[in-house]
Structures are given as structure tokens and as C-alpha cells.
Fold each of these.
Amino acid sequence: MSQSLVKNLVHVIYSTKQREPWISKECRDALSAYQAGRVEFVTLLEAQRALREARMGYFKAQANVLQSLADLERAVGRDLP
């Protein structure tokens, strides 16, 4: 049962489907605005912090799904497809 959790986790981490760019449009825009002198450095940092928090929430949600799947597999006593 634990092997299926590891396989799923590896698939989630290394999957190339629906891969999101590491620098979001908002961060690119904030960086360009900062480089052009249109916004303060704090604005750039806030955009990066917001992106990091959103990513962390995404990965926490994925981890919760995998943990729930592992709990379900343990409860039924076999791997689920």
C-alpha cells in the first residue's frame, strides 16, 4: 500500500502535464514594472510572496489528497486503482 502512495507522489511531482511556469504573469509584470521604475521594490516582493503562498497551498492540497488516498487504501486493505 505504501508503494502506491510513493508512486502517486512521484507522479504528482514529476508530471509534465499541466505544468505551470515558475514565474507567474503577475510576478513577471511586477518585475518589469520594478525594472522600469514604475513600482517600489515592496510591490515586487509582495507579488512573489503571494505566488509562493498560492503554490504552498496547492502542494498542501495535493499532499492532503495523497494522504487521504493512503488512509482509504489502509482502511480497505488493498491498493486502489
Amino acid sequence: MRTVKSKYVVDYYENGNIFTEQYFLNGKCHKTNGPSYKRWDKNGNIDRESYYINGNMCRESDYINGDMCKESYFLNKEQLTKEEFKKIISVMLRLVV
């Protein structure tokens, strides 16, 4: 028998604003329909979004004052360009269907 354990964790600044939001599945950072980790600055502006599948980071976006300034892509802990990432993912999706 397999038991699936999911967990949602939110941390707050002393001023009441959200600091971080994280989703876990079986103890690993994981979410398939959006970022599994988000971090905000004290003023409530998004600072970072990270996408994880089974504990492996796939994408990370950094923000300054709520505006995206950098986006990075990963597969098996190796950093890829956006184009390389999209090409690999499209091939993987064709294999699944």
C-alpha cells in the first residue's frame, strides 16, 4: 500500500505579510500546476518563484520590486537555456502520450 503525504507551508514576516509559501509531496518540494516555492519581500512584492517536480528544480524566476529580472531552467540539476528546456520537455511529452 502506498501513502501519499502532501503539505503546504506558509511563513510570515512580523508585519503579517507572507514571507514564503511552499508545497511538498512525500517530503519533497513538488507542485505540477504552478510554482512550488514562492518568496516575497517585506513590502509584499514577489521576490522569487521556483518550480520543483519531486524535489528537482525545473525553473526559477527572480524579481526586483515585483518585476521579473531573471529566469533560469534546469533538468537533472543542469542549467539549460529556455529553448533547450522547451525542446527537451516537448520530446518528453510526446513520449508520454
Amino acid sequence: MVDSESAPHSDFGRHLAPPDSKRSPLAEDFLKAVIGATAFEKQEPKGTKEILNKYLKNVSDDLLDETYQQYVVAMYEKYPHVSLEGIQTLLDFVKLTNEKAKSTKRSSLPMRAS
């Protein structure tokens, strides 16, 4: 099993709440589980296929490989990108509770062209 603390972006949950607010242990545990499971899926193809095969009731190897490709490899980007609209939505949400964010414009954020 992959330790969720060593998984990529394992500190993601820490950034969901402002630093001065109390975090929900349940939400944090949920995010750690999702991140850990995703890391396991990517790092352990054989183990993931064994789990898939258990719940798919012994399908052919070809179908199992195709399922793995579609639901693990193709679904998760190695370097996910966020759209400008997504950044604006997040910025609008943060502005509700963060005074500093209220004066921030999307255009002032450092962005790489994608």
C-alpha cells in the first residue's frame, strides 16, 4: 500500500481552508484516502488490475488492460492544468472570506501559457 503522506500533492487538503480556520478531520481524511488511492493506482498497475478483476468478476486480460488504461492512465493527467475560468471561480470563492484576495485580479497572478 502507498503511504498517502508520500503521495504527490499529499498536502493538498491543507490548502482547502484558510490558515486560521479549523479544518474538518473527516474532509482531510477523505482527501488523504483519495490521494493515496490515486497514487496506488498509478504506482501499482498490477495490484490495481487485481482489484479491478475482483470486482469486475474475472474479465479477460484484454478488457482488464483496457479498463485500466481508461480509468487510471487516461483519466489522470500527469501534470494537471487549471483553466482560467477555474482560477476565477476559486478566486471569487476565496474573496468571500479573505480581505487580501478581494483586491486580487486574475490577470495579476503569475500564469504560464498552456
